[in-house]
Amino acid sequence: MSLRKLLHALNLLVAACLMLVVWALVTWIGSRPAFKRLWDFSPQARFSVEPVTADLLRGLGEKGVRVEVHTFYQPILGMPAEEEPRQRAMILRRLQDLTTDLLRQYEFLGGDSLRVVHHDLFGDIANTRAATQQFGVTTGDTVVVAVENSGRPMRHKRLSLEGDLGVVELPGSGSDTAMGRPNLPVLKDYKGEEALSSALKSLLVQGVPVVYVVRELSLGMDLDHVAMGSSYGQFFQALRNEGFDLRTLDLRTGVPKDATAVAILEPRREFTEAQARVLFDYLRRGGRVFLNYSFVPTQDWNPDGGELGKLMGFSVGAQAVFHLIPDPRNPSNPGLDNDPSVEKLDIQEANPNHPVTKPIVIGRRALQFAAARELRTQAAAGAGVRTEDLLRTGPFAWLATLDESGHPSLVAPRRRADQFGSRTVAVVCDVDGEEKGTSGHLVVASGLFCNNAGLRINGDLALNVFNWFAERRELVTVRGDRYKARSLQATAQQLDRVWWLLVVVVPGAMLAAGLFTAWRRSRT
Q1: What angle, rounded to 10 degrees, do the helices at 3-31 and 506-523 form?
Q2: What integer pLDDT is reported at residue 33 of this predicted model?
Q3: Bridge-based pairing state of the strands 114-119 and 65-72
Q4: CA 475, CA 143: separation in Å to the nearest integer?
Q5: Is the dihedral of CA 216, 218, 219, 224 positive or negative?
Q6: Closest-CA residue to 76 (of 66, 63, 85, 67)
Q7: Fewest CB within 10 angstroms: 133, 234, 260, 369, which?
């Protein structure tokens, strides 16, 4: 063999080796969590998680947290012949598929800090039995979220596919006599992200924060009723579900040292100087207070903030805030009035930087207040107090005047531009604490938004306030109810083909191309 041919052969060998090294390096880099990207080609793009959930999962490594998600699916070996059992089996299979797809996204975003284990009740009996004993699993179709945080013992929560992740409408009694068919269960919705993220976030926090509810200023309101729309029973239950301990408080006795936050809902009389001083001193000790005003036609029941407002730099207007509603027949019209809907204020400006409202902005969630009054900021009498707007209405809000019946008129000012404007309905007041580096926080909201009637729309905002108070930043988030898949679904056969493509076909094609090029050069 001539020297020239030997050099060509060596050149070909080196080039092939370099190409294989480059290909292996590209494949390795593509498999790293930091460089991964999942793509979705499904029509509805249903499995993407909310941005706040993605941030939570990506931040697990920084917290030194190790998360395991174990699934215990009930095997579905065949479809029953009866209609109702067959429908239930189809629902369970659908929930299993949805959860598996969602957990692929969680595992991808969590990287090395999150591991998903799917237990095979038939194929791996020993490990499955050990896992069921470890987590106390007694039934199938269970998902366990387990967290080991900074060397502490592993904590876990069990979730049911049908009870927690899925919204299944069960059949009613009797049958559909008109159609001659029995009622069947229906999968109405899938809340996998909400259930999994809530379980994970609750496991990441320690301790039980205590919220004291002041009832003496609400003039005997039935705050605990869970069915009455004007009550707050559902909100209190939501706080308990988030891990808060709720207690009552009489301001005459002062705020206890174990208080995480104080809640005052719809006060109907002014703070006395003594009450205001108790709350202000608590804030100076680093306390947190939530104060929610509303409007009622009885004017004596619409306090303006009184002494506490003077100390903290806010005041509440006496008039109800209304807003023009869209005109479906004429989009260029600023809006319509003389309709009860003008009382419903769609929030159009939320502070994008504050921890309470930032997740609302990111998630593009709608908020709606009712019976609101305008909040105004003023010079605070207390030292080291700062105020910041949280929520504002749209540009066509006005301050309603009372009609002959003594109720706010639904008729807007006759198109006087100076009567319309954006109105503030929520502010946060921060005060420097007595100890250096500490601060107290007062959130003031004007309008009904977290009572039973408004919790469905505004529940995220209300819970964000108290989780921020408790410095449980993992829980300041938005519950996802929409899923966009970013995973390319592939069967075992397709994955096998991908392996052959990456490991055999592509490197072989490179080698063949190199050999062909060397052969052509040897002929010239």
Answers
A1: 160
A2: 52
A3: parallel
A4: 20
A5: negative
A6: 85
A7: 133
Q: Where are the beta strands (DSSP E) in 422-471?
A: 424-432, 439-446
Tokens of 514: 């190199």
- 3-state secondary structure at position 437: coil
Q: Which two tokens stand for residue 496?
A: 């096998």
Residue 71, strand partner residues: 118, 143
Which amino acid is located at 226 in the chain?
A: V
Instruction: Tell me the two tokens of residue 248.
Output: 């009552």
CA angle 315-318-323, nearest 5°?
Answer: 100
Helix axes 83-110, 192-204, angle to 10 degrees: 50
Q: How many residues does the chain have?
A: 524
**Residue-level pLDDT at 292:** 97
Exposed, middle or buried, 495 (CB in 10 Å: 0-12/13-18/19+)? exposed
What CA–CA distance (Å, rounded) separates 236 from 223? 9
Q: DSSP states of 205-262 as a string?
A: --S--EEEEE-GGGTT--TT-SSSTTS-HHHHHHHHHTT-EEEEE-GGG---TT-SEE
d(CA 284, CA 279): 9
Other residues' Cβ atoms within 10 Å of the Cβ of residue 493: 8
State the Cα–Cα distance between residues 22 and 28, nearest whole angstrom: 10
Distances (CA, A) of 129 to 76, 117, 119, 137, 145: 19, 14, 9, 9, 17
Distance from CA of residue 509 to its chain's centroid?
48
Residue 43 has pLDDT above 50, yes or no: no
Q: What is the mean pLDDT of residues 184-208?
A: 83
- How large is the average pLDDT for residues 321-329? 92
Cross-strand pairs, 320? 373
pLDDT at 324 over 90: yes
The Cα-based distances of 5 to 2, 515, 517, 522, 523 in angstroms read: 5, 13, 13, 7, 11
CA distance 90 to 79: 8
Q: Which residues contact 132 (CB under 8 A, 6 or more apart)?
A: 72, 119, 138
Q: Average pLDDT, stretch 302-308?
A: 94
- In the chain, what are the domains? 3-37+488-523 (no CATH), 51-171+185-203 (3.40.30.10), 206-473 (3.40.50.880)
pLDDT bin (cut points 50, 70, 90) of residue 518 is confident
pLDDT digits (tens, 9 = 90+) for 273-288: 999 999 999 999 999 9
The DSSP symbol for 267 reads: -
